[in-house]
Records
---
Amino acid sequence: MSVSDIGSERTSLLERQLNTSGLSAPIAMASAQAITPGPTTFGQLLLLNIVNTTPTDESTLVDRTTLALINMTADHNGAIGEGYDWIDILVIVIKVILLSTIIIAAIFGNLLVIISVCRHHKLRITTNYFIVSLACADILVAVFAMTFNASVAIAGKWLFNMTVCDFWNSCDVLFSTASIMHLSCISYDRYYAIIKPLDYPMKITTKRVGIMITFVWILAALISYIPIFTGLYTTEEYMKERLKHPDECIWEVNIPYALVSSTVSFWLPCGFMLAAYYQIYKEAIKQEKFIYKSQQMAVNTNTNHHNHHPRNSTDATNSIQVCPKRLTYPDIHCPLL
């Protein structure tokens, strides 16, 4: 009997044993998932197990063949997994660099604003008090909101408990609302400085600015910490799902809180800013037209004066240059003599 006949006989024996034991489908699936380096890899694997196994040891033949297929598939999938791991690591590194750069720039950029106002006495004016408070809000956004957001973006999941989740959401709402309200306060300050400059020293005082800044922070805290930590901001279904999945942090709000929060935090401040800056724009156009008319009036006045007295300067010059012919002095030069 030749070697090919022995191989054919043992292959038939293997197929019968696989069909009897019910392992033909899993092995076929494993062989289909494995990416073979050549068209004869599967046949070579079977032939290797056939040659190394006796004809009577059918169970050993099946076990060794199955183990070889599983090992081949696992090794190949492991190689692919390593490739994906490197890609994931590269993506994580890029995210860390970008998010860290944004956070550091936000912190140090606003710190420079605060330090500049504190160090230079000329910058300690009422308007800059709003800017310093706004810079503090932006720093707190970078520290308490953007850092947790970066952890979720890098890890792909929430890494903390539910209390920290509520703290993160509260800080996000608080500092974002405070930032927008500070911008509306600055627009109020600019409105009085440009539209009503005579009333500005009486309206925008240090005491009033302090009251406005305090009101901004208190109002922002009222619509953030209290509704979120008491659970008034979300639905009952979400609270039940949250108890089942404490490792998740999802921001889901109900309709009443969404309306109140968006109105106080965004729509009212933005509407006030638009109205204030529109009035400032109208005043700027008005002042520009007034300056243009003043310049035109000055030009027309000079032109009319020149037209009514065209020879004043020429006559004065001629009277100085004319000398009598009978008066001659050696030290006086008269161009008409």
---
Amino acid sequence: RIPRIRTSGELKETTLKVVEQKMMEAYGPMFTLENIRDKLKRAKLNLQVIKEMLTMLQDLGETQIKKLYKQMIT
């Protein structure tokens, strides 16, 4: 379990407020909670796709993974 993260994977409201405050200090008032939530949603979707890809790769053999990798980089 990761501290300050709920079991659903979302940050607690107090943690979001601290993140918002630090982002505003670093980058100016353009960062709001809504911006941060949008960025977290996009990151969560990307992580979901990566997790699905890793699950699919787990079922493949090592030689099949190497073939896929070679196809991706060429």
